[in-house]
Amino acid sequence: MEQAKRYELPKLAYGYKDMAPFLSEEQLTVHHTKHHAAYVNSANAILDKMDKARQDNADLDWKAVMKDMSFQIGGHILHKFMWENLAPTGKGGVPAGKLLEELTKEFGSIERFKKEFSAVAGSAEGSGWAVLVYCLGTHKPLLMQVEKHNVNAIPGFRILMVLDVWEHAYYIDYKNLRAKYVEAFWNHVNWEIVGNRLEAILK
Ligand SMILES: [Fe+2]
Questions:
Q1: Residue 21 has pLDDT above 80, yes or no
Q2: If both were cysteines, with which of 11, 101, 144, 173 could 131 make a disulfide (CB 3.0 to 4.6 Å apart)?
Q3: How far is the CA of 57 from the centre of ligand 1 (A)?
């Protein structure tokens, strides 16, 4: 029988020490190997549960399963996007090419875009994410604020850049000072990756 396909915790393209002082080794390690790993494991456990129910022809509490699945898979996917759009200390760069063009056209300036994204990140209630997406309906970038890992997410929008503002993302280094963490994030955006994502969407 073919081996069941499962989610995997992605390896990071940098070392756990490479984000300091934006993110300490401890903060990044715990976030990746404990929190993200837990979403991967939980997502896979849900797939196992559904497989087993089908084998046994058993009933499931579908409402609970679907809710949990949206949360766990959403958590996995958003973390995967974020690890990729973070750059190690000194490697952040600036937006360029089509990305610079699209952001400037929509937001007026990169400064205005950063201000809005930061405000979206800062005002997420409880645990959530600030997300920059591209809408293929209007052909322009948009901001999205996701609560938890899935609430207020709009289907079909393509993700360009995300920032995790769950306390688990910053509390070891910043305690309750989320705004400081968001401010420091701007020196750690991998603009090349974000730009490549946009180019791939526009193709
Ligand atoms: Fe997280």
A1: yes
A2: 144
A3: 35
The answer to the question of residue 97 being in a domain is yes
In a domain, 4, yes or no: no
Global model pTM greater than 0.90:
yes
- Going by C-beta distance under 8 Å and a sequence separation of 6 or more, which residues neighbour residue 117? 130, 132, 143, 163
Q: Of 76, 11, 90, which is closest to residue 41 (Cα–Cα)?
A: 76
* Residue 6 placed within a domain: no
Q: What is the pLDDT of residue 3?
A: 63
Ligand 1 centroid to residue 80 C-alpha, Å: 10
DSSP letter for 142, please.
Answer: E
The alpha carbon of 118 and the centre of ligand 1 are apart by a number of angstroms equal to 17
Q: How far does the centroid of ligand 1 lie from the alpha carbon of residue 3, in Å?
A: 29
Residue with tokens 């952001």: 103
pLDDT digits (tens, 9 = 90+) for 85-122: 999 999 999 999 999 999 999 999 999 999 999 999 99
